[in-house]
Amino acid sequence: MPNVQMYDRFEEAILNETRCKVATLDCTVEGKKLSDRHSFHKLCVGSAAAAQRDPAFVTYSQFISALGEHKIDILKIDVESFEFPLFGEWREHSRSLPEQIAVEVHWHEAYLRNFEADLQSHWGRGEFGVTDLALFFLHLANLGYGIVSQEINEFCPSCSEFTLVRVEASVPYGGNGAVHTGWHGA
């Protein structure tokens, strides 16, 4: 079981150094609410297919609806190898995509448990490999995310912790409902 004190470090740093709201999703630890700007959810968040197969799972859209938020500043998420099908369902105009993501990415088959059908439907390859990892990050780049940090997870030799920031997105401007795709603030 992961070290809960390790879990708190990230959230506490963000809460102490910013005014952001932080939503943490992790079905592997017993977390707690750290402040009025933080919420912890012991949820398994996955693809629509996973949510349909297993009632313990919810989709990102279901989570956002339950949370009642329209804007997520920082999403810290550890979904134990469901990150591929989960983020694979995100589209440029998906509702409430976070501004920043902190995610543990599992990059070896030994850690990709019981979701081969989900992975196949998004990446269309028979065996998971480095190409799929590249396609995963390309998909996130197409959604406007860039990697700003990567750390090896000392407790999981085939996992890395990534922080991504959404630097480009479709944003409404003007009173006519027009949408501009470009850098934030452009």
From TrEMBL:
The lineage of its organism: Eukaryota, Viridiplantae, Chlorophyta, core chlorophytes, Chlorophyceae. Residues 61-111 form the Methyltransferase FkbM domain. It comes from Volvox carteri f. nagariensis. It comes from the Eukaryota. It holds the Pfam family Methyltransf_21. This is Methyltransferase FkbM domain-containing protein.
